[in-house]
Design brief:
This protein has 395 residues and is α/β, with parallel strands linked by helices. Helices cover 42% and strands 16% of the residues. The strands form 4 sheets. Strands 2-8-7-6-5-3-4 form a 7-stranded mixed β-sheet, with helices on both faces. The protein has a 4-stranded antiparallel β-sheet with strand order 11-12-15-14. A two-stranded parallel sheet has the order 1-13. Bound molecules: pyridoxal-5'-phosphate.
Amino acid sequence: MDIERLRDETPGVATCLNLNNAGTALMPRPVIEAQRAHLLLEAEIGGQAAAAERAGELEAVYLSLAKLLGTRPNTLALTMNATHAWQLAFYGIRFEPGDRILTSRAEYGANYVAFLQMQKRSGLVIDAIPDDESGASDPNALEDMIDERVKLIALTWVPTNGGLVNPAAAFGEIARRRDIPYLLDACQAVGQMPVNVEDLQCDFLTGAGRKWLRGPRGTGFLYVHPGMLEKFEPGMIDHTGARWRAPERYELQPTARRYESYERAVGLQLGLGAALNYALEIGLDAIRDRVRELASRLRGELAKLPGVRVRDAGRELCGIVTFDHEDIDAAAFRSGLGEVSIQVSVTTPDGALLDARARGLSDLVRVSPHYYNTQAELQILLDRLDQIVSESGAS
Ligand SMILES: Cc1ncc(COP(=O)(O)O)c(C=O)c1O
């Protein structure tokens, strides 16, 4: 990987040290240019005409996404963000009183509140799958929990609050064998590691553009296994996803595009296409290896800082690194880093409340290096953290 070239193509590295790639990564130049060009075209000839002119390029976005996920373009829908994609899938599933959802303990907050709302509406039961001794969601426990009332298995592959990589393919093997729909939140996985929906055996998979893929904000996507098209309708439809054929009848699009709506941010989606091609060109294996190497070194160095506790659980760890300090608040670290233009985020318990409660976590500092970050940048982070700790007078 030619890091120097990749950094040259990333204007943001000149102005900030972005270590919040799990939140929003810096866009490379081709992603910025694709959006800028479309915005200018819209200004010149109008939005509808601009979309018509770029129809071929827009179709190519589905091809690139299909390549990234190991599927066919007709299994894909473009959405506004990952949560939107997830909601379209989830709210399309019908639940009767007593039906069960089996989910991970570190399930993402947005997903869990939707479970709770659906529980209020339908009387379903939510059961969290216990973790194994490493802190990962346990496929053996999942298998033991399954009965005829289980209507959905929902897993967050990489939770928002740590480096954990859950065994998503093992879950998929069980879900497929037991014929239970499997909804996989891959938001923090896509773009930082290889993702193949056939290997994962998932029925729905959701992802975001702005995180590890380095695409624009306001982009997301949904993969739908063709078998699900016969079983469920999208949680919401419009007259594009479903054609209004007669006063009392609509007909859903034959493909996953039934999950899309008419209005779309074409410029952002073209930017997403550029981001997908950029990631594919570098290669997801190489990206995974570099990200994990940086993150692993960082964990080792953080653990040496007085009072710092690295909080990542699990056997397989990825590019998210979280820590807290015996005496210093996570917010104080974030603002102390922000003063010198180092971006990190603070992950709060409500991002994965069951996990936070079970492990006694409060706010954590989340550092998420991408392949375009360097060891030298990590050293700048560590030096600044060291300074924050010493200046606080904490032991
Ligand atoms: C695990 C996980 N799932 C879903 C999301 C939601 O993504 P979006 O903000 O694009 O809806 C996030 C965002 O941080 C996340 O960490």
